[in-house]
Each structure stands twice: as C-alpha cells, then as structure tokens.
Amino acid sequence: xxxxxxxxxxxxxxxxxxxxxxxxxxxxxxxxxxxxxxxxxxxxxxxxxxxxxxxxxxxxxxxxxxxxxxxxxxxxxxxxxxxxxxxxxxxxxxxxxxxxxxxxxxxxxxxxxxxxxxxxxxxxxxxxxxxxxxxxxxxxxxxxxx
Length: 146
Known about the structure:
The structure is a single chain. This protein is mainly beta. The chain has a single domain, classed as Calycin beta-barrel core domain (Lipocalin), CATH 2.40.128. It is built from two helices and nine strands. The strands form two sheets. The chain has a seven-stranded antiparallel beta sheet with strand order 1-2-3-4-5-6-9, with helices on one face. The longest helix has 13 residues, at 117-129.
C-alpha cells in the first residue's frame, strides 16, 4: 500500500488535503487498486493530528470518517493512525468494531518498503502504551510493491 497526502487549497466542501492511495495484492495476480480521497484538518489546536477523510465530491459530514495520527516521528519515518476513537474494550486495550468501514481501523505506516522489525515493535509498543489493542494489526509485506 502506498498513501500520499498533499496540502491544497480548500475545495467546495472545505477539504484541504488530497489523498491518493494505491495497493496491490501480494500474489501479483490481482489488479492494482487506487482511490483518490480528500481530507480536512481537524480545526483548532485540540484537534491536531485529526483528519476527516471522505470522497472529494461529498461533504465530510455525510461520508467522512476520522483518521487520527496517534503518534508519529518524522526522523524515524513512522506514523500510528487510528480510525477515530476505539470503543470496544478487550483484555489488551480497546479496538474498533471490525465490521464497520468508517470509524474503524488501526495502521502503522512507515516510509520504507522493507519491514524494519525493530521500528514496527517500537510503534506497536507505543500503541499498547496508549491503550490500543494491537492484536487487530496484520503484517503486510511491501517488498514486491512498485
């Protein structure tokens, strides 16, 4: 998976971030998928790191979902992102309702295509410290992505 975020002038609905996502299946037989979405920064200082993401042609209050940057380090090249506030308590923390497509999800994003096991462990530990259930995370092999 590859995700690119670019600041832009706000569009009609107030979205000020252009988001391009692309992904390929590991087996190489499935088509590459791509989506273009828009994001809107949270607003005031209490919402730093909180985005509303949705379809560029629809207002965010109709179909936009939350994407919160829980932790990041520019120098180390990682971000821990949550699809809003998790609401299901588990013995390992809190998680999202996995049946939902909005207000759901937990991701560790890195800048490198090859997995850095130590960095992934560090970010998983950060998530655990923040009360997130990391059992929902899947390992993804990016080495064959272009």
